[in-house]
Amino acid sequence: MDKDNFSGEKALIDERRKKLEQLRNKGNAYGNSFKPENNAKDLHEKYGEFSKEELVEKKIKDISVAGRIVLKRVMGNASFATLRDSSGDIQIYVTKNNVEESVYEDFKTWDLGDIVGVSGTLFRTKTDELTIDVWDLEMITKSLRPMPEKFKGLTDIEARYRQRYLDLMTNNDTKEVFIKRTKIIDSMRKKMNDCGYLEVETPMMHPLAGGAVARPFITQHNALGQDLYLRIAPELYLKRLLVGGFERVFEINRSFRNEGLSTKHNPEFTMMEWYEAYASMQDQMDLTKDIILSAAAAAGCDSKIEWGDTNINLSNFKQATLSELVIEYNKDISRNDLDNKKKLEEFLKNKKIKIEKNWGTGRMILEVFEETVEDKLIDPTFVTEYPVEVSPLSRRNTENPDYADRFELFIGGKEFANGFCELNDPDDQASRFEDQVAAKDSGDKEAMDYDHDYITALEHGMPPAVGVGMGVDRLVMLLTNQSSIRDVLLFPQLKS
To answer: Which of 26, 56, 274, 409 has the fewest C-beta atoms under 10 angstroms from its C-beta?
Structure first.
């Protein structure tokens, strides 16, 4: 903020503080007795079609609302103002004839941003706007700082994220995004409940880093004198519940991954993860599709939507193997090349992609896919048959044990869900944990720890099952046409 703006804002705050002192001298400047019986949205929905004459005839009295003054026009003995509550805006009309003169004089000095309560009768103005003719009003909360942009909304992008309360206060579009977010999550929960899944809660602090391949956050438990890891994913705990006898479980959870900030990633994020015993991978791809279509309906979306500059058809779900897609989008790679480590190394080097020493062909194939295919999958596409090397918790495919019974869903060139037939062979799982430990010892900071208790659980027997994890934030981005994850998180993580 430059000097002129700073001094100007300080003068406004000083002036408002003087008004606050006057209010304090008259009584409580921050009242708590006004209880609104109505809100702006309900008034417009219930009475928005009434004509001026109908409102006069019906004499709709005893309307009371509370809200923030976002617009005000003082005109001598009569004034108009617009109040904004959580549901929307409503105009009020205040005159000397209907309220005490001293109250009216006070009202003329009230500022944009002040929160007030009013009671009155509904009518229509000459411009046909639904309005409350006020016969009683009171100050509820005095605002000491001026509202941003004089009713135009907060235009500074970073300020919108750092001071979300100002963004919500002035920008109805922002508020609508978060209302839709709640509706989307409600629809996901309803779909799972309707399908017979039990919602559960699992720990957010883990003694070991596991459940997904990602770098964890580490914290310290003073009383126990040990490190704990913020949850990367709830997977290993949810699968313990399958061992315990629950056959359909889900959790809408907060997870944490110690990775960079971007328009696609926030270190703290929301996902929904679910597991079903005795299910097939196709069952879960069908359910994933149904969850997305239900969420789209809850957000008021049609099957054809826009996401930034991309047109997406949600009625056009496709399915293909990872190898098929790599070959389709890379004409210089053949099916035989996918089993040839030297050929894959040569291809990646030509693409200037850094190769780690411990990578096998499976990791290289995934790298080719991520670099050359992923961003081209616009309409919803289920990608199947991932290499076991990059699927440490997935069951091996019976016909081809180098590949896992796993799928990922891509929409608009971005991953939305990851699902697989769960590995329930304790010896195979132990071997893969050992591979993860070796990778960690070689410097891979995203590799998992060896979870001895999870192996013990598997040794008691886990039924065959399919599990899926779906990114909630990214789904909200898609269905509200937001290009950055920060626009769908009320309080995104930002650099200090």
So the answer is: 26
How far apart are the C-alpha atoms of 114 and 381, rounded to whole Å?
50
Mark whether 179 and 107 lie in a shared domain: no
Rounded to 5 degrees, what angle do the CA atoms 356, 235, 483 make?
A: 70
Q: 3-state DSSP call for residue 69?
A: strand
Beta strand spans in 11-112 (E): 63-75, 78-85, 88-95
Q: Which residues sit opposite 270 in a β-bridge?
A: 254
What integer pLDDT is reported at residue 5 of this predicted model?
67
Render the burial of 406-443: b for 16+ CB within 10 Å, e for the rest.
Answer: bbbbbbbebbbbbbbbbbbebeebbebbeebeebbeee
Whole-Å CA distances, 445 to 257, 259, 270, 325, 393: 12, 11, 22, 29, 18
Report DSSP letters for 217-262, one per residue.
PEEEETTTTEEEEE-S-SHHHHHHHHHHT-SEEEEEEEEE------
CATH (domain of 188): 3.30.930.10
User: What whole-number distance in Å separates Cα of residue 265 and Cα of residue 273?
Assistant: 18
Domain ranges, residue 252: 170-330+373-487
Same domain, 252 and 378: yes
Long-range contacts of the stretch 73-79 (C-beta < 8 A, 24+): 74/108, 77/104, 79/104, 79/107, 79/108
d(CA 469, CA 462): 19
> Residue 33 is part of a domain; what is its CATH number?
2.40.50.140
Alpha helices by DSSP H, listed for 80-134, are: 101-109
Distance between CA atoms of residues 261 and 124, nearest Å: 50
Q: Report the chain's terminal Cα–Cα distance, integer Å.
A: 17
CA gap 140, 114 in Å, rounded: 8
Per-residue pLDDT reduced to its tens digit, 176-235? 999 999 999 999 999 999 999 999 999 999 999 888 888 999 999 999 999 999 999 999
Q: What are the CA-CA distances from residue 170 to residues 67, 314, 329 (Å)? A: 13, 32, 46
Which of 79, 114, 146 lies at the terminal end of a domain, its last residue? 146
Nearest to 251 by CA among 295, 189, 182: 189
Contacts of 260 (CB under 8 A, 6+ apart): none
Q: Between vectors from CA 290 to CA 285 and to CA 295, what angle results, nearest 5°? A: 130
Instruction: Name the 3-class secondary structure at 120.
Output: strand
Its sign, for the CA torsion 443, 444, 445, 449, is: negative
Q: What's the average model confidence in pLDDT over 345-364?
A: 89
CA triple 469-472-474, angle to 5 deg:
105
